[in-house]
C-alpha cells in the first residue's frame, strides 16, 4: 500500500506556473503592494511615483518651493519602503516623477502649476526633472537612504527621454548625492518617445542596464494621437505596424548589447502583442495586478509553443 502511494502522481494538483520570461507587476499606490505581491509577480516593472504622491495629496514642487526638501525625501522613503520591503529581494523599478502639469493642478498647493495647451507634449518626465533638479535629487537621496538600509532591490527608471544627454545629466545628479549608477544601482529608461526608440543605440552607448517600453506614450507619439482624446480613441492601437516595428528593433539592438528589455505600458496586457514580444525574446512583461495571472498563463502558452517548435525542428534535424 505504502509503495503504491509513493508512485501515485496527483494529476489534480496544479504546480505554480514558471515562465522563462519574467512577469512583473505595475504598482501605483504603496498600499497596493501586498496585493500586487500576492500575484506571484517576479518584481515591480513600474512603480509610478506621481500616483503615490497624488494619492497622498503631496505636491512635490511645493515642498521644494518652501525649502522642505528633507521632508520630501522622508515622504518618498516612507512610500517607496512599503513597496521594496514587501517585494524584497525581488526588484522594484522606481520610475522618477512623471506627472503632466494638469495632474497636480487640482490639489491644494498645485495652483501654481503652469497652464499648458498640451500637457502631454509639455513639461513632464525627465524634461521637467532636469529643469527642477531638486526633485530628482530628493528622489535619488530617498533611494540612497533605502539602499544604505539594505534594500538593494531598487532600480531607477527615467521617463520620457528623447536624447542621450538627458540620461547623462540624470546620472550626474545621481552621483552628486552619492549614488553611483550601474554600480550601486541598476539604471534604466522608459522607451516611450519614437526618438528614443529610433536612436536607442546612442542611449546604449551612454550606459544602460535596462529599458522598458512605455507603449501608452510610445503609441500616442508614434501615431500623433492624444491618448486622452476620446474623439480619436478609435484610431489608438499599439498593434499599428509602426509601433511594433519600433518595439522589435529596440529589442533586437538591446539584446545584441546585453541590455535587459521589458514593457510596462498597457500593451503588455494585450495577448496579440505579448505573443510578439515573447517571440522576440523580451526579458519581462509588467502588467497591472489584475492582469498578472492571465499574462503569466499567456506567456507560458507562447513559450510552450516556441519550445515545441524548436524541439520538433531539432528532432527532425532541420
Ligand atoms: C506608458 O507610457 O506606457 C507608461 C507606462 O507610462 P504612463 O502610462 O505612466 O505614462
Ligand atoms: Mg508614459
TrEMBL record:
Cytoplasm is among the record's keywords: no
Biological processes per GO annotation: gluconeogenesis
GO molecular function per UniProt: ATP binding; metal ion binding; pyruvate, water dikinase activity
Record carries keyword Manganese: no
Domain PEP-utilising enzyme C-terminal: 11-303
Keyword field: ATP-binding, Kinase, Magnesium, Metal-binding, Nucleotide-binding, Pyruvate, Transferase
Family note: Belongs to the PEP-utilizing enzyme family.
Function (record text): Catalyzes the phosphorylation of pyruvate to phosphoenolpyruvate.
Name of this protein: Phosphoenolpyruvate synthase
Origin organism lineage: Archaea, Methanobacteriati, Methanobacteriota, Methanomada group, Methanobacteria
Stretch of the intact protein here: 450 to 767 of 767
Amino acid at each position: 500500500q505504502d509503495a503504491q502511494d509513493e508512485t501515485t502522481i496527483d494529476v489534480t494538483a496544479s504546480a505554480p506556473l514558471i515562465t522563462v520570461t519574467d512577469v512583473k507587476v505595475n504598482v501605483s499606490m504603496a498600499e497596493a503592494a501586498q496585493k500586487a505581491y500576492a500575484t506571484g509577480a517576479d518584481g515591480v516593472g513600474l512603480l509610478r511615483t506621481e500616483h503615490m504622491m497624488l494619492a497622498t495629496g503631496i505636491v512635490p514642487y511645493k515642498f521644494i518651493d518652501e525649502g522642505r526638501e528633507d521632508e520630501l525625501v522622508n515622504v518618498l522613503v516612507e512610500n517607496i519602503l512599503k513597496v521594496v520591503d514587501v517585494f524584497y529581494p525581488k526588484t522594484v523599478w522606481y520610475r522618477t516623477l512623471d506627472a503632466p502639469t494638469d495632474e497636480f493642478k487640482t490639489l491644494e498647493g498645485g495652483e501654481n502649476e503652469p497652464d499648458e495647451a498640451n500637457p502631454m507634449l509639455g513639461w513632464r518626465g525627465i524634461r521637467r526633472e532636469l529643469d527642477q533638479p531638486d526633485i530628482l535629487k530628493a528622489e535619488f537621496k530617498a533611494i540612497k537612504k533605502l539602499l544604505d538600509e539594505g534594500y538593494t532591490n531598487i532600480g531607477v527608471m527615467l521617463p520620457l527621454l528623447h536624447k542621450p544627454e538627458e540620461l547623462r545629466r540624470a546620472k550626474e545628479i545621481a552621483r552628486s548625492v552619492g549614488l553611483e549608477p550601474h554600480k550601486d544601482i541598476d539604471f534604466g529608461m522608459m522607451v516611450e518617445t519614437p526618438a528614443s526608440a529610433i536612436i536607442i543605440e546612442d542611449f546604449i552607448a551612454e550606459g544602460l542596464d535596462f529599458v522598458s517600453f512605455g507603449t501608452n506614450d510610445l503609441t500616442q507619439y508614434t501615431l500623433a494621437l492624444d491618448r486622452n482624446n476620446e474623439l480619436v480613441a478609435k484610431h489608438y492601437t499599439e498593434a499599428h505596424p509602426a509601433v511594433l516595428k519600433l518595439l522589435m528593433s529596440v529589442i533586437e539592438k538591446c539584446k545584441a548589447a546585453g541590455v535587459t528589455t521589458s514593457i510596462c505600458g498597457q500593451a503588455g496586457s494585450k495577448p496579440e502583442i505579448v505573443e510578439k514580444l515573447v517571440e522576440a525574446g523580451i526579458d519581462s512583461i509588467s502588467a497591472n495586478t489584475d492582469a498578472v495571472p492571465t499574462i503569466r498563463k499567456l506567456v507560458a502558452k507562447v513559450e510552450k509553443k516556441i519550445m515545441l517548435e524548436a524541439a520538433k525542428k531539432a528532432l527532425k534535424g532541420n
